[in-house]
Each structure stands twice: as structure tokens, then as C-alpha cells.
Write a structure and sequence with these properties.
This protein is mostly helical. The protein is built from 8 helices and no strands. It starts with a helix and ends in a 5-residue tail after the last helix.
Amino acid sequence: MDDMDRRLLSALRDCGTDRRVAGAARALSWAGEHAALWLAVGLVGAAADGERRTAWLRGTALTAAAHLTSMGAKRVVRRPRPSAGAGAAAGAEPLVRTAGRYSFPSSHAASAAAAVVAYGALRPVGARLVPPLAAAVCVSRMVVGVHYPSDVAAGAVMGALAARLGARWMVGGVEK
């Protein structure tokens, strides 16, 4: 598994040698920092959809909770980021700075997957627009060189599970 993780990371990291790809990956990575993109989407949804305002706010809370849970898990697991580990490619500096030094699980992926599950349940437009954007944010973390694929996969599972477990609470009181 470790070898496959490193090979996949290397292949995705190579994509970041193209200036356009690197720029897009940096922008996506920045937008997902501290779940900001997904929290903003939830708050805009709450403001725009008065009928489901409470559900949007609860979905936003679930997304924030998934992000915070993944940050707590990082402190327990303490896996170094690829750029800090012995398996980092020679001279492959990350394309972005990170708030922390641990990589497992990816908090970007946790909040992105939570947003997919939570917001996708609220409006059809969310079910169509959020998943590709969330996937792009997840891939960006590998392109910029700060997460292994297993970090991203674990974060996505954690986030999706958190939102799924809170789904009944999220839509509670919303008439169907």
C-alpha cells in the first residue's frame, strides 16, 4: 500500500509541473483551506433557500464537524506530510504551505465529502455541482504535494460518514 501511495502521489505531483495545472491546484487548495469553500456554500444556501434554511445551516455544521474531527484524528495518527517524509521525491517541494505538519486524514477531503453528502441532499443543483468541485479539491491536495492518496481517501470516507450519520438531524423539521 505504501509503495502504491507514493507512486500515485508522484504521478499526480508530476501534473503540477504544468503552470496552469499548478495554478488551478493552488487555487482549489486555498479555497478548501479550513473548509472555507464548503462553509461559504452552506451559508449561501441558507440565505438563498429560506424554505430549507435550518437544514442548510445544519449541513454546514456537519461539514464543519467533519473538518474538525479530521483535524483531531491528525493529532492522533501524526503521519508526516509527503514533503517531510523519507519518501518525498527529490526536490519536490510542496506548491502550497500548510497549516499543520500532519497529513492523515486530509481535512480538505473530509469537508469536501461532507459537503457532497449534506448539500447534495438539499437541492438537485448541489447534487450536480458540488461533487465535481469536491473531487477537484481532493485531487488538488495531491497535485500540490501535501497529501498521499490514502490521506485523501480516508478523509473523504470520514467526511461522508459524518454527514451521512447526521443526515436525519440535518433534514429534521423540513417538510417533504
